Amino acid sequence: MKKSLFLLLPCLILLIGIIPQVLVAQTQKLPPVEISSEVAPKAPLIKKPLNFNFEIPKDSIPPYLPRVYTAKYMPPAITDKEMQPLSLNIGMKSEFSSYLYAALFTNNSHLPFIDFDGNFSVPGTNRSLKNLQLRALSDFHPLPEFAHNLQYQEASSDSFSSSLISYTLFAPAKNLTKGKISLNQVQTWINVENLNQKDNQDSVDDFSFGIRHSNDFTFKDNTFSNLFLFQDSAWGIKAQYHINLTPEKYPALEAGLMTDFNHLLPSINLHKRWITGPGKQLELENKAELTSFSLANLKSNTPWTIVPEKDYICMSPLNLSNFYWINFKPENRLWNKIGFGQNIKFSYNVPSIYSNPVSGQTYYRFEEVFSYQPQMEFSFHVKDLKCYQNLKLNMEFLPDKNWQRKSYSPLLTANTSIKSKYKNLNLITTLEQEYFRYDEDHNYLPFIFDLSLEAQYPIEENLLLSLQLQNLLNTPYQLPGNLPSSGRTVFLLLKYRPFS
After folding, report:
1. Which residue, 114, 221, 227, 421, is most buried by CB atoms nearer than 10 A?
2. 226-277: per-residue pLDDT in tens?
3. Pairwise pLDDT comparison (53 vs 310), residue with the higher score
4. What residues contact 198, with CB distance under 8 A and at least 6 apart?
C-alpha cells in the first residue's frame, strides 16, 4: 500500500504544485438566454415531470454511447429564423409549486453572462422547499475566465429543517505545450459550503471545502490522465497511463490505479466500436470512476434527508458496458432502431437513502453496490405514430449485506412514449412502469403504472400552449420514510419564444 502511494507521489506534486500555475483563460460557448416560470411539484426521488418542450429528452441507456446511436435520437430541425436570447414560460399546476428562471447576456466585458434560478414548493402537509441559485461568468484579464455558482436552499418537514449555502467556482484552462511536455483538458472545481440541520432538538452545523482537479499530462508520446479529489475529510487520487495500441485492431486503453486512502484499486478505461454491417455496430466500454459528493449535490436530490458529517469518495473499478445497435434504412415502413445491451458495475461508497422506522425521517448511508442491468430499446413508427420502448432488468445487490437486493430499487422497468400529430395539435402519451420493489423490511411494494398525457398546440408562430395530465391513474409512489410523492396532477403551460 505505501509503495503504491509512493508511486503516485509525482502525480500529487504535479496536481498541487504545478497545475495552479498554468491555468489560463479559455473562451466558452455560452447557452442562449432563457426566462421561464412554471408551477409544478418537485418530487424528490422517482417521479419526474413530463417533457413539455421540443428539446430532445435524455436517453435512458448509459451515457457512454453517442446520442446518434440511441433509439430516441432525431436530428434537430433546421430553421432559417434566428432566435433572440429570450424565452418565457408561464405555467400553473393543481399542486402548488412555483419556478422562475432568467438568464441574461450583458455588455459588460468583466461579467458577460448571469442567470437566476429559483423555486418554491409545498409538496405536502408541514413540508416546504425554497431554492435560489445564481450563476455567472467572470473575465478579469489576465486572470482565467471563471464560472460561479451561488446557491441557497431551505427545507422543512415535520420536526426536520435544514438550510444550505453553497458556492462553487469552476476554472477551465487552455491546453499548454512547452517543448515535449503538454497539459490538456485542465479543469478545476472549488466549492465552499455550510449546512445547518435540525432534527427535533438536535442541531448540527457542517462546514465543507472541496477541490476537484483533472488534467492530461503528456511527455513525448506518453500520456497520463490525472484526477485529484478533496472533499472536507475525504481524499481521492486517480492516475492512468494511455497505452498506445493500433486503433484499428485494439480498443483504446488506459490503465492505472486509484485510491481513497482506504482502498487501492485498479483503474482501467477501454473503448472499442465495431461496425458489423450497414447500420449495425457493437460498442464495448469500461469506465472507472472516482467521484466526490458536495453538500449541494446530496441536498439537491432529497432536500428533506439528513446528510452525514463524514464525507466519502465513491470508486467504481468495474463499470463494463456493451451495446449492439441496428439502424434500419429510412424506407423501412415500421422499424427505426433496435438495440440490446448490458451494464455490470461495482462501486464503493454509493449514497443510499434509508429511514428511521419510528419517525420516518430519512438519512444517507454509503454502501457497496453491485449491479447488473441488461436492457433493450427500440423505436418504430406506424403511419404518423412515433413509438419508443425501453425494457430494463435492474438487479442491484449489497455485497456487505449478504448480497440482498437494494431496497426501493425496481427489478423491472419499462418506459413507453407515443407521439402523434393531428393538424397543428401534437399529442404525447407516456407510460412508466416499475415492478418488484420492496422496502427496508423486505415487504414488496405495489407496482407503479404511471400513465400521462400531453397536448401541445401552437396558438401563434411563437406561442405554444401545453396541457398535461400526469399520473392519470393516481398511482402511489411509495418512497423511503416520509418523503412526499406526486399523485394525479394537471399542468397548464404557456410558452413564448420571440423571433427576430
Report:
1. 227
2. 999 999 889 999 999 999 888 888 899 999 999 999 999 999 999 999 999 8
3. 310
4. 160, 161, 162, 204
Ranges of each domain in the chain: 2-496
SS3 string of 407-419? CCCCCEEEEEEEE
Q: Three-state DSSP class for 448? A: strand
Phi/psi of residue 352, each to 5°?
A: -130, 155
What are the cell numbers at 200?
Answer: 427535533
Query: For residue 382, what are the CA distances in angstroms to 70, 71, 326, 388?
Result: 19, 15, 18, 11
Residue-wise pLDDT for 134-176, tens only, equals 999 998 888 888 999 999 999 998 889 999 999 999 999 888 8
Q: In angstroms, rounded to a whole number, what is the distance separating the alpha carbons of residues 295 and 206?
A: 9
Q: Which three cell numbers stand for residue 43?
A: 418530487
Mean pLDDT computed over every residue of the chain: 81
Instruction: Tell me which CATH code domain 2-496 carries.
Output: 2.40.170.20
Reply yes or no on whether the pLDDT at 4 is more than 90: no
Res 268: pLDDT = 96
Predicted model pTM: 0.76
Angle (CA) 470-473-479 rounded to 5° is: 80
Cell numbers describing residue 174: 487552455
Identify the residue with better confidence: 76 or 414.
Answer: 414
- Answer whether 346's CB lies under 8 Å from 318's CB: yes
Which among 213, 192, 206 has a CA at the least distance from the CA of 19? 213
Q: Do 375 and 392 form a contact (C-beta atoms < 8 A)?
A: yes
What is the C-alpha to C-alpha distance for residues 281 and 240, in angstroms, rounded to an integer? 28
Which residues are CB-contacts of 27 (< 8 A; sequence separation ≥ 6)? 145
